[in-house]
Amino acid sequence: MPRFGDVFENKVTGEHVVVIRGDEDGGGEPALGHLVVKPGGAVVGEHVHPRFQERFQVISGRLGARVDGVERTLVAGDEVSVPAGIPHDWWNAGEEDASVLVEIAPLNTRFLEMLATLFGLANAGKTNAKGMPNPLQLALIGQEFADVIVFTKPPRPVQKVAFGVLGALGRRRGYRGFYPEYLRPQARVAPDPAVVALAGVTPPAEAG
């Protein structure tokens, strides 16, 4: 259950997320997170989200984004929305941290479970240098979270066949698509007040 101030970090991809609005304090509003990406940091690969929209608003730094094949560099004040089902990718395009407000609409707890799974595997040394798990593990994650994320490569029909074969082998070797032990945040902090104000969020009373 992500809450205001929860921290999720991927030490391999350089992603660091502080929850600004989670499922316990959202009241039906979109989820919001303060994403900080280190120089050279990037998401694990081009993908689509089948059931929700994602919006990126750059606070500082430079964020490279490719949305539906169109590539651009976003700087402070720029934003881009990615409707459900649209391929996209993003990365730090500068030499300093990129600070970004990310909105998920509608709020999707499964997205955080997927994120925490990938982050947890990376932090445990169970991915490659780009944060991608091995093919057996990735197949099981792809099956488990097909409602949340679909990578664009290889093509979807090939993924379905490959994930079926590799997933069966992965299960026999003890891999799982979901790891509850990775769902806990790495820390809790007081989110940056300026980011909270930009997001238009009133901090929960317990955070005051």
| Distinct helical segment count | 4
Return the string of H and E elements.
Answer: EEEEEEEEEEHHEHEH
Major beta sheet, strand line-up: 8-5-10-3-2-1-12
Q: pLDDT below 50 for ≥5 consecutive residues: which ranges?
A: none
CATH domain topology: Jelly Rolls
CATH superfamily, please?
Answer: Jelly Rolls
Broad CATH class: Mainly Beta
User: So, CATH architecture?
Assistant: Sandwich
Structural class of the secondary structure composition? alpha+beta
User: In angstroms, what is the radius of gyration?
Assistant: 17 Å
Q: Any idea what the shape is?
A: globular
Give the total of beta strands: 12
* Percent of sequence in beta strands: 25-35%
Count of individual domains:
1
Query: Biggest sheet, open or closed, and with what strands and sense?
Result: 7 strands, antiparallel
- Average pLDDT, to the nearest integer? 92
Helix content: 10-25%
N-C termini distance: 20 Å
Task: Provide tags for this entry.
alpha+beta; 12 strands; Jelly Rolls
Describe, in plain words, how this protein is organized in 3D.
The chain has 208 residues and is α+β, with helices and mostly antiparallel strands. It has a single domain, classed as Sandwich (Jelly Rolls), CATH 2.60.120. It is built from four helices and twelve strands, in the order ββββββββββααβαβα. The protein has helices spanning 109-123, 135-144, 156-172, 193-199, and strands at residues 6-10, 15-21, 31-37, 47-48, 53-60, 63-67, 70-74, 79-82, 88-92, 98-105, 150-151, 187-188. The strands form three sheets. A seven-stranded antiparallel β-sheet has the order 8-5-10-3-2-1-12. A hairpin with a 2-residue loop joins β6 and β7. α2 (135-144) crosses α3 (156-172). The chain is globular and about 50 Å long.
